[in-house]
Design brief:
about 230 residues; alpha/beta; nine-stranded mixed beta sheet; two-stranded antiparallel ribbon; 13 strands; about 30% strand
Length: about 230
Amino acid sequence: MTVNPVVENFASTGKRGRMPGMQPVVVVQHPLAQCHLAAIRAVGTPSHEFRRHLNHLARLLFLEATRELPVREIDVQTPLKQTVGSQLARPLVCVPILRAGLGLLDGILPLVPDAVVAHVGIRRNEETALPHAYYANLPASLSNADVFLLDPMLATGGSACEAARQLKEAGAMRITMICVVSCPEGLAAMERAHPDVAIVTAAIDSGLNDKCYIVPGLGDAGDRYFGT
């Protein structure tokens, strides 16, 4: 079996690691996450099952991405006595990259129904593989929030880099990207442009084909999620 050494190095860092000179990259290897990933990779998985598995996987990725969020103590009155509980110290903002990122959002929002949802529209030019930004709706509260950028695929990194640029320009200071599948090319692009953006993913695949699609990947996540 031939193994891409870059992928092997990333994977060998364990659950939460950093390659020298690179941003934190978390590969979520929980057995349930990997089972849901296998289901959405399979070409025969119909759209309704693709949605279900992606929603479950998004929740698992988000749980890992929020593991170290700061909390503050609050007083909680139970039916029996007063005790101490926790509350997130900062607001959360979820930013799906349209349209495929909406598939991750659907799985995450039940966990944080109070989160603010922003949107960034970026379309990849299929001839040049370069990003084309066509829409953005961002809140004014990004500077004091924990921001989660959502996109199932981190391929060339063009869309992710442009989205992170827009978020920083709007004031975001703490950004974590959540993606289902990534590859060395996309991770390297993000490292060059945004070394401070942490990345949480379920897999680092071997690379891109001549059409800039991740291999083995899972195809077009948006098309498979929405059925169009």
